[in-house]
Amino acid sequence: MIALEFAGVTKRYGSRPALDQVNLAVPEGGSVGLLGPNGAGKTTALRLALGLARPSAGSVRMRGRAPSDPQSRAKIGYLPELPPFPRRMTVGRFLHLQAALCGLDGRLARREVDAALELTGVRDRAPERLGSLSKGLAQRVGFAQAFLAQPELLILDEPTSGLDPLGIREARDWVQAARDRGCTVVVSSHVLSEIERTCDQIIILHSGRVAASGSLEQIVAPGETLEDAFVRVVRS
Amino acid sequence: MTGQLRAFGLLAIEALRDAVRRRLVIAIAVLTSVFLYGVQRCASSAELVVAGTDFDPDTVNLLLGSGLFFWLSLAVVNLAGLLATDSLAEPISDRSVVLWLARPVSRNTYATARLAGVLILVVAAAIALLGGVTFFLRLHPLPVGIGAALCLLGCVPVACFAMGIALWVPRIVSALLSLVAIQVIVAVNVAVLIGWEPEGWPLWLDRLAPPLGHGISQAVLLWNPDFTHLADPANVALRLAVWAGLSVALLLLAFRRLELPKT
Q1: Which chain A residue lies closest to B259 (C-alpha atoms)?
Q2: What are A181-210's pLDDT values in tens digits?
Q3: Per-residue pLDDT tens digits for B55-83
Q4: Beta-carbon neighbour count of residue A119 at 10 Å?
Q5: Strand A184-188 and strand A153-157: pairing?
Q6: Are residues A65 and A158 in the same domain?
Q7: What is the mean pLDDT of chain B?
Q8: Predicted confidence (pLDDT) at residue B189 exceeds the cutoff of 70
Q9: Which of B91, B99, B109 sits opposite A83 (nearest CB)?
Q10: Helix axes B212-223, B141-165, angle to 10 degrees
Q11: Mind giving me the DSSP string for chain A?
């Protein structure tokens, strides 16, 4: 089963194409890293997958459904870049509401929220307002909300942004734990080492097109690092 | 469907809690309390003054009450426009809308929940203000009920248009446009009620725009025996209901077509 599929997807902002005839398929249980220079279309691709923007041409299917269908987002965990939290809400209230929107009730919701707070190390921040959190803590809360309700597909946009080295290592472990339970992971990042450690498939976007895709072994030539391969693909 | 209803309830409650956190509820409650205290003092003073004259206290209360009822109804409609301006525009401008819509929540559910949050607040303010005036001035409850219902029905298109306009223009501009539009429509409607025969755009505005002024004037017309024949609450209710349905549909259409976060 395909978790996320783009078929001939083009997205234009005015006359500028942000994505141009993109085809990609993420199998269930897979982990895919979206790489690309700034403006390559990585975030646009994630927005299209979540139904936040509409493709100008082509079609997007998430777990077999159109993104406009709310059920396509059931069992999805999404971490946007620099999570845009409602500033006046407390961490605890925000996570409880997110859990409730995932369909969890009462005790089950409390248990899920407690587990997510515990996992991401922000349990003692539950009564604090989201607007008062530092960048790193906000990112941890972002992970906590993405991990609620045992997601089957995780979509992470620049997941290590704002985290310290310890946090980066922890985040890697959280994502790996999700993968171990069979969760599909799609990560968009500039940090090549993170992609290298987290993903088994790589898609390099450049100027809105898929410049290269495949496993690490297929993309990285012998004697090359992922960075070398990335630069080679983008420059060519 | 059940999932969307549940999400609607959760998000509507959250919209109300958001208003509480922004201290809007406290501000409205304080203003309402101060105002009602003034009305209560005014009502008791009116009885004292009337005691030494030939005026009937009930007549004074009716005159005072109908004037107050009209202005308070207008204030409630304006409040709907002001509250609605921020309701959908704020989560879009701070991008937090993305986190809610990444859950299995449809855009229709999200927008109607935000609208419901505004309308619940407006209904509470209307009950406190119009109910308080009715109680202190001993007004007849039937015209009050009809007037309040039409006033609240008029709040729906006002809130929808304020929310919709704020999707495209800065919130302050949206608030000002809403306030100006409400005052112009009400002024034209009332002028027509008291005998003005408009031509050109005021005529079309009176016939085609949401009849806000006609709505909030119905209670006053029903109270006054000289004007009762001008009252037509059923027709006004029908026009307002059509506008309410149309405006909700337009708001949902506009929100569904919006690319998020706005770039």
Answers
A1: A53
A2: 999 999 998 889 889 888 999 999 999 999
A3: 676 777 677 788 889 999 999 999 999 99
A4: 17
A5: parallel
A6: yes
A7: 90
A8: yes
A9: B99
A10: 170
A11: -EEEEEEEEEEEETTEEEEEEEEEEEETT-EEEEE-STTSSHHHHHHHHTTSS--SEEEEEETTB-TTSGGGGTTEEEE-SS----TTSBHHHHHHHHHHHTT--HHHHHHHHHHHHHHHT-GGGTTSBGGGS-HHHHHHHHHHHHTTT--SEEEEESTTTT--HHHHHHHHHHHHHHHHTT-EEEEE-S-HHHHHHH-SEEEEEETTEEEEEEEHHHHSPTT--HHHHHHHHHH-
Domain closes at, from A150, A171, A205: A150
Say yes or no: B229 contacts chain A, CB-CB below 8 A.
Answer: no
In this model, does residue A118 exceed pLDDT 70?
yes
Structural domain for A116, as ranges: 82-150
- Look at chain A and report how many structural domains it folds into: 2
Residue pair A66/A59 in contact (Cβ under 8 Å)? The answer is: yes
Report residue A42 as tokens. 């990585």
Q: Does B101 touch chain A (CB under 8 A)?
A: yes
So what's the ipTM on this one?
Answer: 0.94
Of the residues A125, A150, A175, which one is the last residue of a structural domain? A150
